[in-house]
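Apologies for my clumsy wording, but can you show me some protein sequence, whichever is easiest, together with the matching structure tokens, please?
=====
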Amino acid sequence: MNYGNIKKTDIADGPGVRVSLFVSGCRNKCPGCFNQITWDFAYGALFTREVEDELLSSLAPAYIAGLTVLGGEPFEEENQRVLAPFLERVRTAYPQKTIWCYTGYVYDKDILPADGRKRCEVTDRMISCIDVLVDGPFMLEKRDLTLQFRGSSNQRILELHPAEPTADGKPFRVMS
């Protein structure tokens, strides 16, 4: 997997000060995407163990609230296979910090179901590490600059592991 950028102090992609990893590769290619350069799977630099270690070190300060993974598209299968073990390392090293992830896919349609088009052998491992998922394709016609942590009104902010069961029995809670 390649990555396009790392932000060690990001305040735009989740609550608090975060470390953000922008992975490369996206098949969604949403019109109006803010980060079209990362659609190319070959863009940027190789995501190595040294890069993982650098990210883990960047997460150490107490003022860092957590990690955000976006792109590109983290849920492209080839990216999941690299991200799942990395996110497990983050979760083990920093259980108190949150992991946010952005995807252009719809969680309960494309990722969660056993026959979802973005499921692979590591999807459940990746999901188990993510606290909050912002899902849905960016839609230029639904763009709304007043929304916090999302670009268009169709996108949802999902708590993946709610402390209490949801009224509708879903394994996630829509936060907004």
